[in-house]
Write a structure and sequence with these properties.
single chain; 121 residues; mainly beta; six-stranded mixed beta sheet; four-stranded antiparallel beta sheet
Length: 121
Amino acid sequence: QVQFVESGGGLVQPGGSLRLSCVASGFSFRGSAMSWYRRSPGKGRELVAAISYSTGENTNYAESVKGRFTISRDNARNTVYLQMNSLKPEDTAVYYCNAGYLAPTFNGPAWGQGTQVTVSS
């Protein structure tokens, strides 16, 4: 059974930082690219960042987060991270992870609960 468990969200002031974690199970983590998505009120799901499989040599970021967010992975822990710096109010959203590089591999009930990030003074 595929499962994603996201954590690390919270309330942070503009300019602050957060580190999100996602523990994945039920599929070949090392053999899968991984991605972070976000969804905010009134907006659809947005691909935020992606990292290629195995060593994670390749990464891809949404224009809106380039230079501020960094995705990384730890295959020994089946975990993908999203380091978020210089946070802005427009980064407020629920953040989710999934397998895949340009599109989510698993859909429907496989999506986790996500972790809420709120950027506000």
